[in-house]
Amino acid sequence: GQNIDQPTEMTATEGAIVQINCTYQTSGFNGLFWYQQHAGEAPTFLSYNVLDGLEEKGRFSSFLSRSKGYSYLLLKELQMKDSASYLCAFYQTGANNLFFGTGTRLTVIP
Amino acid sequence: GAVVSQHPSWVICKSGTSVKIECRSLDFQATTMFWYRQFPKQSLMLMATSNEGSKATYEQGVEKDKFLINHASLTLSTLTVTSAHPEDSSFYICSAKNIARGPGYEQYFGPGTRLTVT
Asked: How are beta strands B32-38 and B45-51 bridged, if at all?
């Protein structure tokens, strides 16, 4: 089977750093994605990790450990507009579609 | 590049009627498009995979006779919700993969269609 675990909700302060964790289980793995979704809108692509390590892209970084089935999304210098749901997703080997977690709803407070 | 559009962005219909939602890839070709449904405060649930020129593949529990999918060209897929009922009210999102990028790359999502059945 396949499964993704993410915290349901998180709260962080404007200007701070927050780490959103994601653990996954799958029989085959072909890359992990993070998407951002604001309420009532479609998801937008943030990052893609296929090899172990940290990928940095501006204020957002994503880390992957394939041996541990673990990823995290790191958001620095939080802004109010970062309040959104963050979805962890992966491709199973041979699959054509992404499998999504339930998402983590992040609230940034002043 | 990699823009996906959906039409309409929102629709209200009466129970028992049918609603068609269009998904277009505007600047790339997509042999495969995906249809998701998302209820409030829940994640995206894949309904079906739409393949150009062939029948769609439906996920378990999704009624193929109720949710008709047509993928007539490399840039257009449609989802028709037939005999809609209030429980079909949801946020429907399509996504597409750019065939030129190969497997394993990100999907590009449309802006979604909010369906309300009264």
From this structure: antiparallel
Q: How far apart are CA B115 and CA A9, in angstroms?
A: 26
In chain A, residues with a C-beta closer than 8 Å to the C-beta of B109 are: 35, 42-44
B62: Cβ–Cβ under 8 A, 6 or more apart, which residues?
B47, B48
Query: pLDDT (tens digit, 9 = 90+) per residue, B36-95?
Result: 999 887 888 899 998 888 889 999 899 999 999 998 888 999 999 999 999 999 999 999
Contact A42 B110 (CB under 8 A): yes
- What confidence tens digit (pLDDT) does each residue in A2-32 have? 889 999 999 999 999 999 999 999 887 778 9
The sign of the dihedral angle between the CA atoms of A68, A55, A20, A87 is negative
Residue labelled with tokens 């200007």? A15
Q: Is B43 on the interface with A (CB under 8 A)?
A: yes
Give B64's contacts (C-beta < 8 A, 6+ positions apart): B48, B56, B58
DSSP letters along A26-71, please? Answer: -SS---EEEEEE-TTS--EEEEEE-SSEEEEETTEEEEEETTTTEE
| A98 vs B contacts (CB less than 8 Å) | 34, 107
- For β-strands B67-73 and B90-96, DSSP reports them as unpaired
Structure-token pair, residue B1: 């590049």
User: What distance, in Å, lies between the first and last C-alpha atoms of chain B?
Assistant: 37
